[in-house]
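Sample 1 of the test manifest.
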Amino acid sequence: MAKTTASDAQALIRSLRSAYASTPTNLKIIDLYVVFAVLTAIIQVAYMGIVGSFPFNSFLSGVLSCVGTAVLAVCLRIQVNKDNKEFKDLPPERAFADFVLCNLVLHLVIMNFLG
Amino acid sequence: MANHGVLLALLLLLPLHCFSFSEENPTDRRILVLVDDLAIRSSHSIFFKSLETRGFDLDFKLSDDPKLTLQRYGHYLYDGLVLFSPSTQRFGGSVDMAAILDFVDAGHDLILAADSSASDLVRGIATECGVDFDEDPEAVVIDHTSYAVSETEGDHTLIASDSFINSNVILGDKKIEAPVLFQGIGHSLNSANSLVLKVLSASPSAYSANPKAKLSSPPSLTGSAISLVSVVQARNNARILISGSLALFSNRFLRSGVLKVGSSVKYEKSGNEQFVTEISKWVFHERGHLKAVNVKHNKAGEKSEPAIYRINDDLEYSLEIYEWSGTSWKPYIADDVQVQFYMMSPYVLKTLSNDQKGLYSTSFKVPDVYGVFQFKVEYQRLGYTSLSLAKQIPVRPFRHNEYERFIPAAFPYYGASFSTMAGFFIFTIVYLYNK
């Protein structure tokens, strides 16, 4: 029983990897970027758990910059995905321009709130 | 010529004005004594003499004097009133119960003595002040266990009481050793009135009844619920003394010796003289009158008083409290004066320390809350006039540029923010040029 579960899991991961291998490179880059942002956020939350929440505004801006980055990157990924029929009328250049603008606004706010 | 007359009148009136009751000189000066028989002036002369030697200006009037008036042109002519006219049904002139109560409401003092002939008018004034005399007009206080032994009276209505209120400010620092002689009617305190105090109370075995009639039903007033002498200090610091016995103040009682039944000590002189002298000092504000001056606050290390504080400022608060001794202001020394830093509820409550010279001070940190605060001193102690000070002061939060910056503990957050920015920059380049 346990053996079949383990092999099932292995088979699942293998099929996921082979399926992911066919993902376009630009989407892979976005995925890497999201992973980077989420890891940075987790590190900060762990640090806050150890040191305490004293400069709370700095903590918030640090974590929210990561979360915001991740959310914007995911939005970009949805819009530039060729398989997504919902945004087929939206050119990827326009989607990227939106992404850049939103990031600029996000970081402006973060800089103001960082203290 | 007419001008000269006015000037002369002003010059003559000026000294009168200077001697009246004032903030700086709170002792009463002019006292109206209303009697229903001018013989009281001689039969109670020791009490009146002691008032006069203490500088009071006594004005004796018959209570039905048709020219009787308490105020003229909106100003009171007297600072204190002594009502030694228990049997008066109506006062003469413009004085009535409402006028006397207005007199007290204006902050003036009153001594009211009744006896077994007390009229409805006198009872009415007492009721308004918070004490109720026994309604039975024949009733007097009788006590079969703590009466004063007397050769002429056998009905035990001459009471020797020594249950005084425990307050040095009302009865003076010197303990009254001999019992006080009392002959008259008892009263009870109105339980709804929290300002009235029993100064001399009857013993637990006393009761109030007609001594000449057989006691058929239980007396309405019994035991130590009977008050013989009571005082009131109103919220405006007017002081009232109510005694059920006019004879308490008489020369006969002041000079008489006293032997309390069951006691082996015969006192050569009753405690009445000390009692009436000390309590009249209290009633006429020769004792227990406080004033607070030089209320100051400033930031720690500074001298001037700021118009606004910032949260978490350290501040110092001080004031001076003096007690009027009858002739001068003496430093008031106590260790229970507290200041509140108050906004709807006290955020800070600190006991002030004093330097034994009347200067009270403390320092504390403004709480981490902004809004409109008050420095409040609410000092109410038995026998003393109440001090109630409030001074408003706003407290503001940090200004935008007053916050601490570049905190070492926040460096990881700064680092994370800048690294996501750098990450964004690199991502943009990689994303645009990977094709």
